[in-house]
Amino acid sequence: MRQERKDELSHKTSLCIHSQLLISSPGGNVSAGVSGYNFLKGIPAELITCNFGDAYSIAVVLLCAGSKRLCTPHARFLLHGIGIDVTAPTRLDEHSLDEPIKGLRLDRETIASIIVESTGGKKKLQMWKT
Asked: How distant is the alpha carbon of residue 97 from its chain centre?
């Protein structure tokens, strides 16, 4: 009887657990999105993500959390540069812009690293000139 219980437990723990996450999102906050990505990657299960509408901005990063990534035939994706919202009236000088710019560059690197890691691509970042 003891061996039967051991075999039963072994069988239960060897079952593969699957989770599915359907995504359709206009995006949002980079920090919250990266935290969500880290949370999803930490789930002890196979995660399948599917873009069934729009995966814009940081939602693309959430989609990358899946070990399998799917999309419907008419799904759309959007990646763009990142920025900071500034409320008026705000005076910005060189010193006060230094830290936010460092943060933007770090966020860009983080997003690029996640996408490269999940797609097997090559990391190549270029500064956009306007």
From this structure: 26
CATH architecture of 2-119: Alpha-Beta Complex (3.90)
Of 57, 67, 95, 96, catalytic: 57
User: Is 11 considered catalytic here?
Assistant: no
Active-site residue, from 11, 14, 74, 80: 80
14 vs 10: CA distance, rounded Å: 6
Residue 18 known to be catalytic = no
Report the first-to-last Cα separation within the chain, whole angstroms. Answer: 73
Give the Cα-Cα-Cα angle 8, 13, 14 (nearest 5 degrees).
95
List pLDDT tens digits, range 66-104.
999 999 999 999 999 988 888 888 888 888 889 889 999
> Where along the chain do its domains lie?
2-119
pTM comes to 0.77
